[in-house]
Design brief:
55% helix, binds erythose-4-phosphate, pentose shunt, aldehyde-lyase activity
Length: 218
């Protein structure tokens, strides 16, 4: 499973990249705003900076909601860097825009997916990635992981090439369960990724090894 980090924070992206396990980055307008990145030029420059830190795909989301606007914006975004993937919302115009880009070999990430039917449409349109938001489904007492399972079944039934990018991942258990189900990619915060490192028996075992070494090497 590929690991993407879901942030626009350059320091967090660097930290994950330094760990050596990072395959890409996803951003969205809320994450850019959280980092205080505003204005068209600043936003574009920020995407370029992110691309210079990581070697994998970097999702950059369009703001337009109409087909022509999405095409115009997407074309501008892909000019920024070869790693840019155009992130497009799951709407009627969004599906048409995904089809347009897929026919031209431009990578897309279909975002704000909350049902298997939406994921089926995204795959039919040729999306490179589909982003089911599991955390936000959990937030409304609906099991987000069941959606990942359903999409996995549907895509495997027909051999769709669209990659399942489990999004709105919040916890290390989300990551593990996505891996068990067979999500192709997960995108989550640095905190959830780093939490995978932790086990008290590792800490206790390491402390004992070091203490025993110290005893014998005074
Ligand atoms: C997906 O690409 C989104 O950026 C993201 O995963 C949303 O996560 P949230 O529900 O924690 O905001």
């Amino acid at each position: 499973m590929k690991f993407f980090i879901d942030t626009a924070s350059l320091s967090e992206i660097k930290e994950a990249q330094d760990l050596g396990i990072l395959d890409g980055v996803t951003t969205n307008p809320s994450l850019m705003a959280k980092e205080g990145i505003t204005g068209e030029e600043n936003i574009k420059n920020h995407y370029k900076e992110i691309c210079n830190i990581v070697s994998g795909d970097v999702s950059a989301e369009v703001i337009s909601t109409d087909y022509e606007g999405m095409i115009r914006e997407g074309q501008e975004l892909v000019k920024l860097h070869e790693q840019i993937v155009v992130k497009i919302p799951m709407t009627k115009d969004g599906v048409k825009a995904i089809k347009y880009f897929s026919e031209r070999g431009i990578k897309t990430n279909c975002t704000l997916v909350f049902s298997a039917g939406q994921a089926l449409l995204a795959a039919k349109a040729g999306a490179t990635y589909v982003s089911p938001f599991i955390g936000r489904l959990d937030d409304i007492s609906t099991e987000g992981l069941i959606l990942i399972e359903d999409i996995r079944t549907i895509y495997d039934n027909y051999g769709f090439a669209t990659e399942i990018l489990a999004a709105s991942v919040r916890t290390p258990m989300h990551i593990l369960n996505c891996a068990k189900i067979g999500a192709d990619v997960m995108t989550g915060p640095l905190s959830a990724i780093l939490a995978l490192l932790n086990h008290p028996l590792t800490d206790i075992g390491l402390a004992k090894f070091l203490a025993d070494y110290a005893k014998g090497n005074k």
